[in-house]
């Protein structure tokens, strides 16, 4: 009796798209395996990113110096961040740097990507590689190289310019020119990366769109405005956010080239964090300033993300 | 099986990381002490010799030196100490000592100084002043030397300057005589003197000039930079630099060294390292004290301090102190001075003991004019930045009275901080 029933009960109609139970089983197994493979990376991230972030948050509420005693000071460090005149100057300098760096780097990268995306361009591969090379060298090396190039006594660039009758002077000691100079080095060093991202974005745009536009009589300018730029907005958002973050976090070439000088004209927020932490040994204040910078960066990225996201929605 | 293997891998990784994080255990052998320093030239060789002699002289203590650049000592000491991996003994520029001491990084050496066998009784008082923070001593000097003028004797001969200037006016007029603008384009090819207006040696040069006219920067925890004496000093030198073009502008200490070593400046202001730079570049040089100002003959001194860190146990601190006493004994003081080119740190060492090294002999003669730079000032970073801004903008021709008032406010804020 029961033997008759068993096969019927056992019968289950096949679930759509394969056996559900089996799928679930292997999925969780795969998740577990993936997690295991990720574990080393997660441990490293946890130890070297998450844990320091949590520690820094705690330190930002203390008067820690990194050793010896530390006392809880509540919001004192944060109050100082918003009232200290040095921080205000550093924020102004960082804003100036961002305005100098971000548009220049992004426009240069986009322009050259458009130029080198054209199949008619001779030596395309050579130029693409050449433009990317600066990105692969270390920032400190680039900064040292440029310091020597523009040195008023021994610099090659100065020597050539002098031959053409142009006096460049001591750029890094000039309060008006020092910031543009360090921003220029960052543009030179970083724009290769943005350039490659733009190039990839351009190659994602189907050529059929351009052909159709051409048949409809659209000129190069119309094609750029109506097809290229709109379809690049995702890439643009990515590049802009990256460039802005790079600008807000700038440190290396300034540390090497000017050390924040001449008299504080290139002292950015991260230089201020470094000076507070490692020169004045005020780790608590440096941590608080780091957190304020982190939150400011997040907000700015979010604004850009929403702005470009909306533009893309409008377009689709 | 695979999962077990992965888990084993993860566990092994973790174990390795844990092993990497933990420090080595202590054993019962001699007390080992790490000593960070930045002496990389002939001075480094002599220091190694003194350390080796010390290690060989007894069985209880072994000092292991670690050579780093001065800048990297400053950059890594904080992280090393906070990780409990710091050195037991560290040498650093003396003006950096107060900030570390005030944050509790160094052990107090008051008892050490009180001990007669520490060989500290006859140390140059100015050098000891740089080790004090709020009345407590946290370091022992390993170097103290007033800034001096290093001059190119060949250029002096060529210009017919036979006597080294003794006063500011003579200094300016000799500098004018030594300044050469061959092509008449308004930019001299050779400067009489190079007076850096910011960073490194400029941080000592301008205070020296202020002292020379009876001015000062900080007095007993109060900013005193905004004084008529200092205004006069700035105006005097700014005019000599701009109107008489005796020195280029916008130069820091490193740029000054380059100009002098390239034979493009007849005089530079610096420390004992200029002797080796001049020798390397085959420049015949002589050393003279900074010409006297209207009020005083004074020069800011460059100091290096050695301190015992809080990472040490009682036994390690005792060991460090034993080494410091050994370093400061009469024989080693002479050896260190002759080898490093810095004047003796002890006042009871007779001049003829170091006569065989002409640089040391010349510097020893002017040693008494040396004044410590910002002794006991914890926030020397901001004070020196304020001086940098003041001198750079004054030399660029901005209004001295306004600049001094600004510097006064900034320095007072830094002192109150």
Automatic annotation (TrEMBL), chain A:
Residues 1-26 are annotated as: Disordered. The chain crosses the membrane at residues 34-54, 95-117, 129-150, 177-200, 231-251, 288-308. It is found in: Cell membrane. GO terms for biological process: transmembrane transport. It is a multi-pass membrane protein. PANTHER family: ABC TRANSPORTER PERMEASE PROTEIN, DIACETYLCHITOBIOSE UPTAKE SYSTEM PERMEASE PROTEIN NGCF. Keywords: Cell membrane, Membrane, Transmembrane, Transmembrane helix, Transport. Residues 91-304 form the ABC transmembrane type-1 domain. This is Sugar ABC transporter permease. Belongs to the binding-protein-dependent transport system permease family. The keyword Ion transport does not apply. The keyword Transmembrane applies. GO terms for cellular component: plasma membrane.
From TrEMBL, chain B:
CDD domains: PBP2_UgpB. This is ABC transporter substrate-binding protein. GO terms for biological process: maltodextrin transmembrane transport; maltose transport. Signal peptide: none annotated. SUPFAM superfamilies: Periplasmic binding protein-like II (SSF53850). GO terms for molecular function: maltose binding. Belongs to the bacterial solute-binding protein 1 family. It comes from Glycomyces paridis. One of its GO terms (cellular component) is ATP-binding cassette (ABC) transporter complex, substrate-binding subunit-containing. The lineage of its organism: Bacteria, Bacillati, Actinomycetota, Actinomycetes, Glycomycetales. Keywords: Signal, Transport.
């Amino acid at each position: 009796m029961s033997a008759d029933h068993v096969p019927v009960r056992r019968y289950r109609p096949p679930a759509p798209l394969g056996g559900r139970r089996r799928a679930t089983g292997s999925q969780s197994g795969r998740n577990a395996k993936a997690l295991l493979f990720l574990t080393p990376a997660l441990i490293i991230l946890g130890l070297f990113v998450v844990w320091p972030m949590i520690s820094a948050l705690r330190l930002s509420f203390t008067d820690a110096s990194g050793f010896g005693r530390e006392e809880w000071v509540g919001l004192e460090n944060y109050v100082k961040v918003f009232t200290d005149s040095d921080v205000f100057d550093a924020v102004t300098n960082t804003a100036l740097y961002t305005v100098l760096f971000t548009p220049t780097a992004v426009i240069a990268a986009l322009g050259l990507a458009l130029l080198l995306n054209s199949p008619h361009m001779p030596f395309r591969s050579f130029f693409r590689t050449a433009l990317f090379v600066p990105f692969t060298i270390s920032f400190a090396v680039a900064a040292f190289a440029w310091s020597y190039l523009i040195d008023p006594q021994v610099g090659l660039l100065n020597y050539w310019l002098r031959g053409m009758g142009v006096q460049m002077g001591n750029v890094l000691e000039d309060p008006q020119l020092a910031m543009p100079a360090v921003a220029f080095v960052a543009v030179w060093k970083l724009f290769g990366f943005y350039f490659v991202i733009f190039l990839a974005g351009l190659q994602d745009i189907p050529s059929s769109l351009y052909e159709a536009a051409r048949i409809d009589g659209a000129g190069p300018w119309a094609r750029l405005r109506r097809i290229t730029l709109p379809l690049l907005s995702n890439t643009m958002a990515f590049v802009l956010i990256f460039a802005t973050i790079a600008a807000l976090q700038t440190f290396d070439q300034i540390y090497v080239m000017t050390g924040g000088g001449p008299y504080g004209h290139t002292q950015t927020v991260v230089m201020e964090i470094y000076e507070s932490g490692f020169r004045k040994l005020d780790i608590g204040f440096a941590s608080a300033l780091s957190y304020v910078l982190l939150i400011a960066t997040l907000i700015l990225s979010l604004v850009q993300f929403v702005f470009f996201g909306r533009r893309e929605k409008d377009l689709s | 099986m695979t999962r077990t293997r992965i888990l084993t891998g993860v566990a092994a990784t973790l174990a390795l990381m844990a092993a990497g994080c933990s420090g080595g255990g202590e054993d019962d052998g001699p007390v080992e002490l790490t000593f960070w320093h930045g002496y990389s030239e002939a001075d480094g060789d002599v220091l190694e010799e003194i350390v080796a002699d010390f290690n060989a002289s007894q069985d209880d203590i072994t000092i292991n030196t670690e050579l780093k650049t001065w800048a990297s000592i400053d950059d890594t000491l904080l992280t090393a100490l906070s990780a409990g991996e710091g050195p037991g003994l560290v040498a650093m520029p003396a003006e950096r000592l107060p900030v570390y001491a005030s944050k509790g990084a160094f052990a107090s050496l008051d008892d050490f100084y009180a001990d007669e066998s520490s060989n500290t009784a006859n140390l140059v008082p100015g050098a000891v002043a740089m080790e004090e923070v709020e009345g407590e001593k946290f370091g022992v000097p390993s170097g103290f030397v007033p800034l001096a003028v290093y001059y190119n004797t060949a250029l002096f001969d060529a210009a017919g300057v036979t006597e080294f200037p003794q006063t500011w006016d003579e200094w300016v007029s000799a500098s004018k005589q030594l300044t050469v603008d061959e092509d008449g384009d308004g930019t001299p090819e050779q400067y009489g003197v190079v007076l850096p207006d910011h960073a490194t040696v400029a941080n000592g040069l301008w205070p020296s000039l202020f002292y020379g006219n009876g001015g000062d920067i900080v007095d007993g925890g109060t900013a005193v930079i905004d004084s008529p004496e200092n205004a006069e000093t700035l105006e005097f030198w700014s005019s000599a630099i701009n109107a008489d073009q005796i020195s280029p502008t916008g130069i820091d200490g490193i740029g000054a060294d380059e100009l002098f070593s390239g034979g493009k400046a007849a005089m530079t202001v610096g420390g004992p390292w200029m002797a080796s730079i001049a020798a390397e570049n085959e420049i015949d040089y002589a050393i003279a004290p900074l010409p006297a100002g209207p009020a005083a003959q004074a020069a800011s001194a460059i100091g290096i301090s050695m301190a015992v860190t809080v990472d040490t146990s009682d036994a390690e601190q005792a060991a460090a102190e034993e080494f410091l006493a050994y370093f400061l004994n009469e024989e080693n003081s002479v050896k260190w001075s002759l080898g490093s080119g810095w004047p003796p740190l002890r006042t009871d060492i007779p001049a003829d003991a170091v006569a065989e090294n002409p640089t040391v002999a010349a510097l020893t003669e002017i040693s008494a004019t040396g004044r410590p730079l910002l002794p006991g000032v914890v926030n020397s970073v901001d004070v020196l930045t304020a001086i940098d801004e003041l001198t750079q903008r004054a030399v660029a021709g901005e209004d001295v009275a306004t600049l001094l008032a600004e510097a006064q406010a900034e320095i007072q804020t830094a002192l109150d901080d």
